[in-house]
Amino acid sequence: MSIRNTRSDVVDAAGRLFAERGYHGTSMRDLGKELGLLGSSLYSHVDSKQDLLVAVVEEGARLFEASAEQALEAPGTARDRLAALIAGHVIVVLDNVDVARTFLNEARMLDAEHRDRIVQARDHYEGVFRSVLADGAHDGSFRPDIDPKMASIYILSVLNALERWYDSTGPLNLDELTNELNTFLVDGIG
Questions:
Q1: H helical segments located in 36-173
Q2: Which of 107, 127, 138, 151 is the most exposed place for a label (fewest CB within 10 A)?
Q3: Cα dihedral sign for 173, 178, 183, 189?
Q4: DSSP conformational letter for 171
């Protein structure tokens, strides 16, 4: 019986390999081997390796955007919304490590048209953090002198690094990690 791969299977495998080896370190031959296909057979599913990178990175952008939208619906103060943004980011990164790693590390390999779209999506996502931080400076959730741009850079830098160091078999489970991050990040600017 032959293995039948869908476009989704091909994109998932590309995400794994891009996350592990990088975009330039992954060939269509590598991807074909991963799926049990000849490299040329992949072209029945996709137009190019760039097409695969676009699909993986756009999925990452969609996941981060959806988590931000959900966080913005959280009741309460800006402090509560920031905690929800942090929790959502943690879940996106740790539940979708390959997609998140590719989004965070390989998006720069996109062609200009696609890179511009992803940069706009990333800027919008970062803008949500800045907006919540600015709201918190006004509603008393955070120090009034906080610089929302710098604070969002610090927070996202910590959160984006999770894919490099967090070990799910380590001492902190997902909830404990999220609580620790909220204590450090949210309380730190309170």
A1: 49-72, 78-95, 97-106, 112-139, 148-160, 162-165
A2: 138
A3: positive
A4: S
Q: Walk me through the domains of the chain, giving residue ranges and CATH numbers.
A: 7-44 (1.10.10.60), 50-188 (1.10.357.10)
Please count the residues of the chain: 190
pLDDT at 45 over 90: no
Of 99, 156, 92, 98, nearest to 124 by C-alpha is 156
Cβ(132)–Cβ(85) below 8 Å: yes
Instruction: Show the tokens assigned to 108.
Output: 């720069």
Q: Is the dihedral of CA 177, 183, 186, 188 positive or negative?
A: negative
Q: For residue 40, what pLDDT is reported?
A: 64
In one letter, which amino acid is 105?
N
Per residue in 133-154, pLDDT tens? 999 999 999 999 999 999 999 9
